[in-house]
DNA sequence: AACGCGGGGAG
DNA sequence: CTCCCAGCGTT
């Protein structure tokens, strides 16, 4: 299909549909500044709109500008990110803010290549920023767009495969019109989220119905081709809530990269370790009898975690060791830390029991 | 090319 | 339960 036909059969009806049904009152659209677009795009990576909205509002309240963000401490950023997941996004966001202050005079570049080089900003996010914030004709390729394009053009094969992905990028940019670029980017995402959905797509009300090859052959459900998934492994963790006479709780900062990177977590026992031996040997603490606090399962996208949390009231034996980046925190301090969801759950359970 | 990286919403 | 979401960085 040539460029002119693509406009007539794809982009134009899509833009018309957007004018009637598209989302135009999302928080990052009012106003749609480069900074707000950037923050929202990072939060929205692999995360649904409804989940992001409250996080976005809190973030803007705390960091109204890129300079505010650059001057903050990483723990502040991670605290605002607590519960949102994929915490490398928060760390990269902070790094990018500092780089923009240092290398770009505090102004987010209006250039795809420059944006793409910044931490946490890949091809699709860079395209989202230049198209939405600067109205440039550069196409995104996210989950919504992959679904719309594979159906419309009946693209077979797993979309993450190099050859298929290259084809999808080309198609995505072919469909991007030269005008109304910001609206177009929003339009194709809205169509994917509201009409061309993974299950039960609303083809009868779809603006692209006339030319959609998947609809023509009644095989919408075949696209996009699904990945073959392996069974997820299961891990077990015994976590300790160590608290002292004052009610302070001991937490350790995780290494900067990896699972829950940079977050504050509870000490983790090795399989078969005796809790009291563990804290005496590693922390020079003595403790009262461990009490079962809570046991539950936590599901990640790449493994299952079975958690068993114990609480132990402790006394310092020698001088308290600050190894493993550990610290004692009062309850009020914990509220301003970056915590993983299971950590928050265990701690709130602890506080409910020991108020 | 495959994997690591969270957590939640929808069916 | 399963699927998948405004993906990116590393290996």
Automatic annotation (TrEMBL):
<dbReference type="InterPro" id="IPR004036">
    <property type="entry name" value="Endonuclease-III-like_CS2"/>
</dbReference>
<keyword id="KW-0408">Iron</keyword>
<dbReference type="InterPro" id="IPR023170">
    <property type="entry name" value="HhH_base_excis_C"/>
</dbReference>
<dbReference type="InterPro" id="IPR044298">
    <property type="entry name" value="MIG/MutY"/>
</dbReference>
<keyword id="KW-0326">Glycosidase</keyword>
<keyword id="KW-0378">Hydrolase</keyword>
<dbReference type="Pfam" id="PF00730">
    <property type="entry name" value="HhH-GPD"/>
</dbReference>
<comment type="similarity">
    <text>Belongs to the Nth/MutY family.</text>
</comment>
<dbReference type="GO" id="GO:0032357">
    <property type="term" value="F:oxidized purine DNA binding"/>
</dbReference>
<keyword id="KW-0004">4Fe-4S</keyword>
<dbReference type="GO" id="GO:0006298">
    <property type="term" value="P:mismatch repair"/>
</dbReference>
<dbReference type="InterPro" id="IPR029119">
    <property type="entry name" value="MutY_C"/>
</dbReference>
<dbReference type="InterPro" id="IPR005760">
    <property type="entry name" value="A/G_AdeGlyc_MutY"/>
</dbReference>
<dbReference type="InterPro" id="IPR011257">
    <property type="entry name" value="DNA_glycosylase"/>
</dbReference>
<dbReference type="GO" id="GO:0000701">
    <property type="term" value="F:purine-specific mismatch base pair DNA N-glycosylase activity"/>
</dbReference>
<dbReference type="InterPro" id="IPR003265">
    <property type="entry name" value="HhH-GPD_domain"/>
</dbReference>
<dbReference type="GO" id="GO:0006284">
    <property type="term" value="P:base-excision repair"/>
</dbReference>
<dbReference type="GO" id="GO:0034039">
    <property type="term" value="F:8-oxo-7,8-dihydroguanine DNA N-glycosylase activity"/>
</dbReference>
<dbReference type="Pfam" id="PF14815">
    <property type="entry name" value="NUDIX_4"/>
</dbReference>
<keyword id="KW-0234">DNA repair</keyword>
<keyword id="KW-0479">Metal-binding</keyword>
<dbReference type="GO" id="GO:0035485">
    <property type="term" value="F:adenine/guanine mispair binding"/>
</dbReference>
<keyword id="KW-0411">Iron-sulfur</keyword>
<dbReference type="InterPro" id="IPR015797">
    <property type="entry name" value="NUDIX_hydrolase-like_dom_sf"/>
</dbReference>
<keyword id="KW-0227">DNA damage</keyword>
<feature type="domain" description="HhH-GPD">
    <location>
        <begin position="43"/>
        <end position="194"/>
    </location>
</feature>
<dbReference type="GO" id="GO:0051539">
    <property type="term" value="F:4 iron, 4 sulfur cluster binding"/>
</dbReference>
<comment type="function">
    <text>Adenine glycosylase active on G-A mispairs. MutY also corrects error-prone DNA synthesis past GO lesions which are due to the oxidatively damaged form of guanine: 7,8-dihydro-8-oxoguanine (8-oxo-dGTP).</text>
</comment>
<dbReference type="GO" id="GO:0046872">
    <property type="term" value="F:metal ion binding"/>
</dbReference>
<protein>
    <recommendedName>
        <fullName>Adenine DNA glycosylase</fullName>
        <ecNumber>3.2.2.31</ecNumber>
    </recommendedName>
</protein>
